[in-house]
């Protein structure tokens, strides 16, 4: 006989069952969260206050940092609280809000990264037309569309996923609520409800990947034609970090959302969810600042007392 016990709340599996290990996980995640929060907010502050960094590239970077702060702030504080209180429970509305914000910020992240690749394409392949194409209005439009489309997909996914009741096991084998795990324990044919938004999301996601791929094919071709090694190195230094960030984000997202959920996967199988939600917000500030002389100078202007070798 099929178990039709309705689910009234969910249990997030996390990374440990022992209370001491849960506390240790909470401390580690708190440290990572603070690093991600402070580094990204520092970038936003520098890019907002420094008049010399008001260019399209840094405008999109500021949006990326805001999205990183937003994305990491959705699942991590809840996980830290659950680990410290040794209570893995999350309510259905709480899970719905997690899913809404995570999918929204993920979608917006991908579109912002696509806009950043287009900005680099125009800057390197069409430098004479850069100021005409990448106007302030065009940048605002692309950024606004990225946030709006991400929010729309988040709402569609969440509405479809929570369109029916859940029954059977209430365990989610991640440290946050995600679509595959919720679809597995849904009583109704929820897949039909999320299929249209899932199909559209996959198409747009693949379109973004294709656009970024084509942009970098043209960028690579243009850079290799530059006679100066110094100019080539400078062009690569502005493009390579973006490509690394995008590849890391996409690969980890695919591993989280396209992997078949298990009832109790080993801890190592839950690591992609950490890479997807926590690692990019930590790495992005380092990737975009350590190899960027303009950002280093901006940090020095904002923090004049900071020793030069620290930035």
From TrEMBL:
Residues 39-288 form the G-protein coupled receptors family 1 profile domain. One of its GO terms (cellular component) is plasma membrane. The keyword Transmembrane applies. The chain crosses the membrane at residues 26-47, 96-118, 139-159, 198-223, 235-258, 270-290. Keywords: Cell membrane, G-protein coupled receptor, Membrane, Olfaction, Receptor, Sensory transduction, Transducer, Transmembrane, Transmembrane helix. One of its GO terms (molecular function) is G protein-coupled receptor activity. It holds the Pfam family 7tm_4. InterPro entries: GPCR_Rhodpsn, GPCR_Rhodpsn_7TM, Olfact_rcpt, Olfactory_GPCR. CDD domains: 7tmA_OR14-like. Its main location: membrane. It is a multi-pass membrane protein. It is found in: Cell membrane. Odorant receptor. Belongs to the G-protein coupled receptor 1 family. This is Olfactory receptor. It comes from Fukomys damarensis (Damaraland mole rat).
């Amino acid at each position: 006989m099929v178990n039709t016990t309705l689910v009234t709340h969910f249990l997030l599996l996390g990374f440990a069952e022992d209370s001491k290990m849960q506390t240790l996980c909470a401390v580690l995640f708190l440290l990572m969260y603070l690093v991600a929060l402070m580094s990204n907010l520092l970038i936003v502050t520098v890019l907002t206050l420094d008049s010399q960094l008001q260019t399209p590239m840094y405008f999109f970077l500021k949006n990326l940092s805001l999205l990183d702060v937003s994305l990491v702030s959705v699942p991590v504080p809840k996980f830290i609280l659950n680990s410290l209180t040794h209570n893995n429970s999350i309510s259905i509305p709480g899970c719905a809000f997690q899913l809404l914000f995570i999918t929204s910020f993920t979608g917006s992240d991908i579109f912002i990264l696509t806009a950043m690749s287009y900005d680099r394409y125009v800057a390197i392949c069409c430098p004479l037309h850069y100021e005409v194409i990448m106007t302030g209005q065009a940048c605002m439009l692309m950024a606004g569309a990225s946030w709006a489309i991400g929010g729309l997909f988040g709402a569609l996914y969440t509405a479809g996923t929570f369109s029916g009741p859940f029954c059977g096991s209430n365990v989610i084998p991640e440290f946050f609520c995600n679509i595959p795990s919720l679809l597995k324990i849904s009583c109704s044919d929820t897949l039909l409800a999320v299929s249209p938004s899932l199909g559209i999301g996959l198409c747009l996601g693949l379109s973004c990947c294709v656009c970024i791929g084509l942009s970098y094919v043209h960028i690579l071709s243009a850079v290799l034609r530059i006679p100066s090694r110094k100019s080539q190195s400078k062009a690569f230094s502005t493009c390579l970090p973006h490509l690394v960030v995008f590849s890391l984000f996409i690969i980890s997202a695919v591993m989280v959302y396209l992997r078949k959920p298990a009832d109790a996967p080993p801890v190592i199988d839950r690591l992609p969810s950490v890479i997807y939600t926590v690692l990019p917000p930590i790495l992005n500030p380092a990737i975009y600042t350590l190899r960027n002389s303009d950002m280093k100078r901006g940090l020095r202007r904002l923090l004049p007392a900071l020793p030069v070798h620290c930035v």
